[in-house]
Amino acid sequence: MRADYVLSVTQLNDYVASLLGNDALLAGLSLRGEISGLKRHTSGHLYFSMKDENALVRCVMFRQNALSLQREIRDGMQIVARGYASLFTRDGQFQFYVRSVEDEGEGELYRRFMQLKARLEATGMFDPAHKREIPRLPRSVGVVTSATGAAVQDIVNIIRRRYPAMDIILCPAQVQGEGAAKDIAAAIRAIEDDGRADVLIVGRGGGSLEDLWAFNEEVVAKAIYRCGIPVVSAVGHETDFTIADFAADLRAPTPSAAAELCVPEYEALSADVAEFQHKLALYARRSLETERTKLDAYRAHGAFSAPGYAMKSLCDALDALEKGLERESADILVENRRALDAADAALAALAPQRTLERGFALIKTEGGTIGSISGLEVGKRAKIVMRDGEADVTVENIKAGGSQ
Amino acid sequence: MSEKSGAYEKDMKRLQEIVEQLSKGGLQLDEMMKLYEEGVALSAKCRRTLDEYEAKLIVIDRRNGGNADE
Question: Could you tell me the pTM of the whole model?
Answer without folding.
Answer: 0.59
